[in-house]
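ok trying again, last paste got cut off:
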Amino acid sequence: MNTGAVVVTYQTPNGLLQNCLTSLRISGIQDISVINNTQKNNPGFAAVANQGAARLTNDYLLFINPDAALAPGALAIAWCYLDDHSSVGVVGFLLRSPAGQVETMSFGAPVTPLSLITRHFVKPRLPKHPAPVGWVSGGALIIRRRLFKQLGGFDPQFFLYWEDVDLCRRAREAGWQVILLPQAGVLHQRGSSLSDNWRRTKLYDQSADKYFRKHYPEMICLMVRSARSLYRLLSPRAH
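nice, full thing came through this time. structure:
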């Protein structure tokens, strides 16, 4: 399939970036838009990812982190699934750590104020077969370009984090399915570009606030913010 890739870098070790690009080329992707997001006036991941997508004219857009690498055959699995399922707009790959552990926080059910609570008590179940989900991680997802254009791309108000959850929500609201493909693997060196836990948590919480303000009434947003403040006293790291 005619696929272009967007890779947004930020303080990414060169070796990891090269591994990413090599995996893309081996998988058959020739059109790759790499943007170094270290400019002085950093607009954030969502805005820069949109800039990268605007450079491409391919029918499908693959967004992948620079510290991630496609497993052999992963892209072909995604291509076949998209080709066979015209109602599917977004496909997420299964992210694994170098030790082989599945990143269970890289996909999930539709995000609601209630799900923010229940996810800490209900362990995410990894489907054995392709399954509809509420959202998939922007660390490795492929989307039909016409859908990405229809949605206006990622919402640039999200500096970092939650832009993928928001994109998938809007895709589902537009009538498209979001699917996780557990057979399509991606190796992910999580957190290699932003190792400052305090800053990462602050950005995560700011984007969470923006997400709930965008999709829910103000009273709900205040309740979510208050509950998170209490939660951060017990668990200060972003998740």
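cool. The radius of gyration is 17 Å. The chain has eight helices and ten strands.
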